[in-house]
Amino acid sequence: MRLASVVTLAGAALLLASCATPPRDYRPDALALMKRDFHAKGIAGMDRLNEDAVQAACNKYQDEPPQGFAEKLQNEQLAAIKWPADGKLLGDWKAGEKIAQNGRGMSWADKGGVGGSCYNCHQVGPRESSFGTIGPSLYQFAKKRGYGADIQRYAYGKIYNAKAYSLCSQMPRMGHVGALTEQQMKDLTALLMDPASPVNQ
Amino acid sequence: MRHALVLGLAAAVAAAPWLQASAQAPDPTAAEFDKFREVLEQDNPAELFEAKGEELWRARRGPKNASLEQCDLGLGAGVVKGAYARMPRYFADAGRVMDAEARIVHCMMTLQGFSYAELAKQPFSNASRTPDPVSLITYVAAQSRGMKVAAPQDHPKERDAYETGKAIFFYRAGAFDFSCASCHGADDKRIRTQPLPNFTKPAKAIAAVQGWPGYRMTGGVMHSLQWRMNDCFRQQRFPEPAYASETLSALLTYLTVNANGHVYRGPGIKR
Fold first, then answer.
1. How many CB atoms lie within 10 A of CB A183?
2. Full-model pTM
3. I need a labelling partner for B32 at 20 to 30 A (CA). Which of A53, B173, B241, B262 fits?
4. Which of B166, B136, B168 is nearest to B153 (CA)?
5. Among chain B residues, CA nearest to A61
6. Residue B22 in this model has a pLDDT that exceeds 50
């Protein structure tokens, strides 16, 4: 009886302790350690360790931020997209294919010249069998979705800033961070949207 | 044997059609490579570096003209057998958790008198040079061949290292918003044709440990996990982590503890 109540008490104390102390957030420790242990190299500066608002929200909530909060941030990203001044979203799909194939750029070993890295994660054109699977297949992108102005705008916007459409998408924000130029993004949009592009055959 | 396995799998898939949707089509490139690796592993070039590492371990070197035979890899001074499979671990004399290569660097500094700057200047192999710590880590790793991975989580600092490493693994930042988990956080994904193991799941995390240190056929050089971590951060578009730093030990603690219980096959071959 006595032993039992001691055990119960100890159990209650443990339970209380585990309720009172939320699991420790190790992210500040991790960031402090990285800031101490990393150094700038080439074009990859130490500023890259800092989270922007989107990265911070996705890191904090393990890629599932509360809906209202996510929506607000997503809308801010959407509003920051710079649409081409000439209103034209389609460039040259042949140039787009080259950009899609090129996986270089933005690392400490790169100087300038950034590719789209599209094939790293997506199936794109039918002739390239070496494609990644982190992102969905883009083969027959417009053939399946239609060739209209709204889909064109979605394709360009998604390439410019994937986070404007899905806040914690794994896809880099190619226009938002200045990795790709307006012309490169137009060429990639053409690769996805041009009826003559191999993607839509 | 291999045929039987493939046939068995095919039969299982035929009998259970719901498997077909999730099972990925076998990648012919990967299959060819696996065959090639099996043949090569019977006569693994890593053994050359293992032998070189053993020689270096016993040789009196450095400003203090000492060997590494008194180096404590966590199981007592001079005990090499099984030490690699039980690292990263906390070392009181250094006041931090260290992965195996960080510990070797520590011993080269304290016992032999080498400077960190000297060892960290060009720490990775290239066509003309294999740094001594790379040969040494290959020797040390080989002494855990066939043993179960058992990175300890007894000391509070080891548990902190695991949690810190996990936070580093999931930390998205940089020009492309990448974290380690961007590539290694889901099952059955690949970059181009390169399969990406999911390191967050115990069943798959052994892929982070297995085959390292490894003789890499691209370039024909011996590489350790320090190189692997470094090159991943390059591809993550991050700045560069310091060689043998606590950040990398923490990350390796997360990866290795997730792989605990699996048998380590020793230095291997990498694509």
1. 13
2. 0.88
3. B262
4. B166
5. B170
6. no
CATH architecture of B44-270: Orthogonal Bundle (1.10)
Are the Cβ atoms of B175 and A31 closer than 8 angstroms? no
**Is B90 strand, coil or helix?**
strand
pLDDT in tens, B31-54: 777 777 777 667 788 999 999 999
Whether residue B167 and residue A132 make contact (CB cut-off 8 A), yes or no, is: no
How many A/B residue pairs have CB atoms within 8 Å? 129
Does the ipTM surpass 0.85?
yes
Average pLDDT, chain A: 92
Residues of B annotated catalytic, as ranges = 232
Q: Which residues of A touch B98 (CB under 8 A)?
A: none
**Which residues have a Cβ under 8 Å from the Cβ of B218 and sit 6 or more positions away?**
B270, B271
In chain A, which residues have their Cβ closer than 8 Å to the Cβ of B24? 133
What's the angle, vertex CA B270, arms to CA B268 and CA B271, rounded to 5?
160
State both tokens at A135.
């992102």
Separation of alpha carbons B162 and B256, rounded Å = 9
Residue B18 CB-density burial (10 A; 0-12 exposed, 13-18 middle, 19+ buried): exposed
Chosen from B96, B121, B192 to mutate, greatest number of chain A CBs within 10 A: B192
Q: How many CB atoms lie within 10 A of CB B188?
A: 13
Could you say which DSSP state residue B89 is in?
A: E
